[in-house]
Amino acid sequence: MAPEQVHEKILFPVRRTGQRTSTPECRKGTESDAVPRHTRRVSFRAAFTRVWCNPGIALRHSGGNIHGMKLLLVEDDFDLSGALSRSLETRGFDVLRCAEGHEALLAARKKPFDVIVLDLTLPGLDGLELLARLRGDGNRTPVLVLTARGAVSERIAGLNAGADDYLAKPFDLEELMARLQALTRRMGRDGHLRCGLLHHDATSGAFYRDQRPLDLSPREGELLRTLMSHVDRVVPKDALRSAVFGDDDDIQADAVEVIVHRLRKKIVGSNTEILTLRGVGYLLCDDAAATAPRGTR
What we know:
The chain is an alpha/beta fold. The chain has helices at about 55-60, 80-90, 100-110, 125-135, 150-160, 175-185, 220-230, 235-245, 255-265, 285-290, and strands spanning about 25-30, 40, 50-55, 70-75, 95-100, 115-120, 145, 165-170, 195, 200, 205-210, 210-215, 235, 270-275, 280-285. It has 2 domains: about 25-185, Response regulator (Rossmann fold), CATH 3.40.50.2300; about 195-295, Arc Repressor Mutant, subunit A (Orthogonal Bundle), CATH 1.10.10.10.
């Protein structure tokens, strides 16, 4: 009999005012924190929903590209941090937890991480200030802000401070994983953009295919940079038009299509594909991800 499929989902609620269950320290997951070999329910505070974990299924879903990646989880709610770190570890991440802003800043300065998940409401040093200091240091590690501050103005503040993505609580674990996979796929610790064998050097502005320079026009480069900044996400045609041509209204209606056509020829052999979603926009993904939507294009 085939093993029963397990749906894994976490919905984290907004913490009540004045409620805190945290420890001001960074810590690694311990053996006692590990999810057991067999599927079971992991229960913590009654306010949280159930977390169903099957390590084997979780690892298959995570994909090999994140296995062993170092993730810094900055969250002052101890129960939430513990449950989330266990779920991330079953999916291949090497997680270090920090519950206080200054401790997290020290950890990020002491060793490199592949991605940072950052809460904004932290004791000692606010998350926005922590992020600003990291960017001021020249640290380009991808940062996903995970917080109860869901207002549009708060999201804009986080993105302007240097965040690469933003997810408001309550959230679904599957959405968090999808966003982390997209971040780690398209960005490295140096802030350079990557997809498949394509690489964009943020310092020089050059594009490479398997370490070989790509000969792109300025408009081709801007369009490809925009797509690489949104790997696995649909970029509306109007957004591409604005990124490439700015406010210039004197352009042909099919100008974006023409550039995309030229780009597709130049990135052959890069293990990437530019997908067209008719009436919506374009999406850049690696070949492994491209196989999923092919049947519906």
